[in-house]
Design goal:
The protein is an alpha+beta fold and about 110 residues long. About 50% of the residues lie in helices and about 20% in strands. Strands 1-2-3 form a 3-stranded antiparallel beta sheet, with no helix packed on it. The radius of gyration is 21 Å and the shape is rod-shaped.
Length: about 110
């Protein structure tokens, strides 16, 4: 017996297989959760973190981001740390890549 159900949060597959005589084995396949959790976390970026991320994606260095936003360099570094942590990235380049895959970046020319 094989049953597939669709949940509002994603697709779930349930397999009921023979295990031993008079027993059944139930196998539950859940959708990949990492992509969904990254998207949920990314939505919680603050407006300033989003601005820093958009400028980093446009290729600006940390000092240029600070100048463009009128904030201090250590503040940019703090926002970058928070962005990397929330997106699960080791570098800002990796954070930009994750954000691009998730569709979180502003189209060029419409950013800050």
């Amino acid at each position: 017996m094989r049953c597939r159900t669709v949940d509002l949060r994603g697709e779930v597959q349930l397999n009921v297989l023979p295990f031993q005589q008079d027993r059944l084995r139930v196998v539950l396949f859940l959708p990949h959760l990492q992509q969904r959790s990254v998207a949920a976390i990314a939505v919680r970026l603050t407006a300033r973190e989003k601005s820093v991320l958009d400028l980093a994606a446009a290729g600006l260095r940390r000092d240029r981001i600070a100048h463009a936003l009128g904030i201090a360099l250590p503040t940019v570094d703090m926002h970058c740390r928070n962005i990397r942590k929330k997106l699960g990235a080791g570098t800002m380049s990796a954070a930009v890549a994750v954000a691009a895959r998730q569709g979180l970046l502003e189209p060029e020319g419409q950013g800050v």
